[in-house]
């Protein structure tokens, strides 16, 4: 079953987000394709600044794929000084893409 994962990261900057994206993909610049992720199963990725940090909303094919990616991204975030990650996971009811 697909899941939506919401990561609210108070205090995270755009620079830290960009650094994390480069570490995830292993190349400079923003992540542009699900193929850039080190784990298969990503359906969509959206990020945005908030009033106090950064927000990421991912849709994964399964909770297992999401968990596997978490094993990659959490250490990267910690290395960048992002320690306050508020994570929520929800089962997907519907996905619409362009």
Overview of this protein structure:
This protein has helices spanning 14-25, 63-79, and strands spanning 3-10, 42-49, 53-60, 86-91. The protein is globular. With 98 residues, it is α+β, with helices and mostly antiparallel strands. The protein has a four-stranded antiparallel sheet with strand order 2-3-1-4. It is built from two helices and four strands. 30% of the residues lie in helices and 31% in strands.
Layout of SSEs?
Elements: E1 3-10, H1 14-25, E2 42-49, E3 53-60, H2 63-79, E4 86-91
Helix pairs in contact: 1-2
Main beta sheet = 4 strands, antiparallel
Strand order of the largest sheet: 2-3-1-4
Mean pLDDT: 93
Query: How much is the radius of gyration in Å?
Result: 13 Å
Q: Got a strand count?
A: 4
Low-confidence stretches: none
> Number of DSSP helices?
2
């Amino acid at each position: 079953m697909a899941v939506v994962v919401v990561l609210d990261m108070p205090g995270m900057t755009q620079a830290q987000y960009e650094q994390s994206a480069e570490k995830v993909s292993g190349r400079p610049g923003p992540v542009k394709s699900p193929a850039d992720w080190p784990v298969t199963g990503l359906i969509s990725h959206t990020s945005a600044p908030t009033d106090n940090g950064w927000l990421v909303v991912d849709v994964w094919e399964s909770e297992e794929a999401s968990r596997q990616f978490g094993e990659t991204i959490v250490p990267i975030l910690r290395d960048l000084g992002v320690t306050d990650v508020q994570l929520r996971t929800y089962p997907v009811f519907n996905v619409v893409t362009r």
